[in-house]
Amino acid sequence: MNIIVPIKQVPDLVEELEIDSSGKALDTEWLKYKVNEFDDHALEEALLQKEENGGTVTAIAIDGDDIDKALYAAAAKGADRVIKITGLGDNPSNHEAARAMANAIQGIDYDMIFTGVQAVDDRDGQMAILMAHYLSLPHVSVVTSVEVSGGTATVQKEYSGGVIAEFEVQLPAVMGIQAASETPRYVPVARVRRAMRGTDLEEVSAGDVSVGGSTEVNRMFKPESGQGAEMISGSTEDIASKIVSLIKG
Amino acid sequence: MSNNVIVIAEHFKGQLDDITFEMLGKAKELASALGGQAIAVLMGHGIKDLAGQMGAADKVVYVDDAALADFNPEAYSKTAAEVVKAQGAKVVMTGYTSMGLDVGPGLSVDLDIPMVAYVSEISGDAATSSLYGGKMNVESAVGDSCVISVLAGAFPAEAGKEGGAPDVEEASAPDLSGLKIKFTKLIEPEGGDVDITAQDILVSVGRGIQNEDNLPMMEELAGKLGGEVSCSRPIVDNKWLGKTRQVGKSGLKVKPKIYLAFGISGAPEHIEGMKDAELIIAVNTDENAPIFDYAHYGTTEDLFDLVPAITGKL
């Protein structure tokens, strides 16, 4: 089973987000990035499939802040190939990114594409489905289980309330992964450093990424806090007492 | 150019989902402002009766085919694209739901029009996305034509439930032979150890508890309060707690008397599942966490100090 895993970096939401001087985008100067958590699950699921059934895992990403580190980390975890797509400019839309990915993987022999079901900055739709439609491949998103047998995958998709729908999908196909069957593996920094020295980070150009128009951003703004919470402050003991009295009504 | 507003209706087990009515109410308002029609597209098998329930629409176009009996990403995407093309639309609304996710972005590619996702507000020619886990809003110009995926709970369902007698029209299905995806079955959740929807008090934990080893402390607090531990999505994805404990979009909707949120940031997907709790108290060291917009009381005190202090007073 050869699996391609598109990954991307997103702002780490633990940090405070600020708006830049254009009023339309995040101020990236102090922004900390991390791999989209669902892409981490997609990579994990791909590595598990490889461990069970053999084959290869290729991690691929659009060039951007800190992306080399993310790709080397994927290599350190077990990806066989890591590829960076260049020439897209700053902040490409997901439509453009999906088309660039579709172009870049044309020469690669693959059975499945696993990517995160969503990312916190998906302003124009989710990568898995966009890629699938540019590639004319079947897709299932919100996937929590993939079992492959021959040229078919049995795929579980989550609905609300914990109900699962099961599908049989002819490969090749694209899956938007919600959760891997194991917690994504951790890789120590030392191994990422070793991977940086021993891994060939391939670069390919984005190619033609014309898409059917994109919407313009008018403005970015922080959501108005509704009524908002009444904040409790003081010593730990004071706060605990206040909360206990609220609970006891 | 068409001024219609199309809603891709969602239904499950013979019932229209709330998201369908939430979108319909908004579609009606938008269509009348644009001078177009609010059109609901209903796909399924033996579903004609559901058309009459969508009185807020000017017209319901339904497609009845055995291949549409259960949701299928491929069959529904293909059919929706055909119907939308034939009707023409300025705005196509899909739910930001498990089913809607597999339809919306594909429609945008197949119809060659842009898309705006995670939308919580639409007014005039602009749609506002709730991005970065609810920490930033981004307003996009809708332009000539656009697919919009709508967050659950963004618009009131009541407006979409208003009576009326829509024109009901049948459209034929496109060629659905040779599909590469086959629906096989539904798997219902196992009756878990606990029913979190039946609790008066929930001690809910999120990513902020950092580590599985910190769960016993939360369980002790829940025990002393006569409640149960529930959680947000990342806790389940990391297998620290079972699916039956998950509150939110893909988990359960809860309405306890008291909801204590520890280390939960409050992404829209989580808020959807707990915003109706009677009393919400949120504990998060990030003073900008969106959960504080929904909580009645909040504190930025470190939960690892605060939880033992609360437990000690009970």
Report on this model:
The complex is a heterodimer of chains A (249) and B (314). With 249 residues, chain A is of the alpha/beta class. Chain A has one domain: Rossmann fold (3-Layer(aba) Sandwich), CATH 3.40.50.620. Chain A is built from six helices and 13 strands. In chain A, strand 4 (57-62), helix 2 (67-77) and strand 5 (81-86) form a beta-alpha-beta unit. The radius of gyration of chain A is 21 Å and the shape is globular. Chain A starts with a strand and ends with a helix. Chain B has 314 residues and is of the alpha/beta class. Chain B folds into two domains: 5-171, HUPs (Rossmann fold), CATH 3.40.50; 196-313, TPP-binding domain (Rossmann fold, 3-Layer(aba) Sandwich). Chain B has ten helices and 17 strands. In chain B, the strands form three sheets. Chain B has a nine-stranded mixed beta sheet with strand order 9-8-7-10-6-1-4-5-11. The longest helix of chain B has 17 residues, at 18-34. The chains are: A alpha/beta (249), B alpha/beta (314). At the A-B interface, helix 4, strand 7, strand 8, strand 9 and strand 12 of A face helix 3, helix 4, helix 5, strand 7 and strand 8 of B. Strand 13 of chain A pairs parallel with strand 17 of chain B.
List the helices and strands and how they pair.
The complex is a heterodimer of chains A (249) and B (314).
Chain A: E1 3-6, E2 9-11, E3 33-35, H1 37-53, E4 57-62, H2 67-77, E5 81-86, H3 94-104, E6 112-116, H4 127-135, E7 139-149, E8 152-158, E9 164-170, E10 173-177, H5 189-198, E11 201-205, E12 217-221, E13 230-231, H6 236-248
Chain B: E1 5-8, E2 11-12, E3 15-16, H1 18-34, E4 38-44, H2 48-51, E5 59-64, H3 73-87, E6 91-95, H4 98-101, H5 104-111, E7 115-123, E8 126-131, E9 136-141, E10 146-150, E11 167-170, E12 181-187, E13 201-205, H6 215-225, E14 228-231, H7 233-237, E15 258-262, H8 268-274, E16 279-283, H9 291-294, E17 297-299, H10 303-312
Parallel strand pairs in B: 1-4, 1-6, 4-5, 5-11, 6-10, 7-10, 13-14, 13-15, 15-16, 16-17
Antiparallel strand pairs in B: 2-3, 7-8, 8-9
Helix pairs in contact in B: 3-5, 6-10
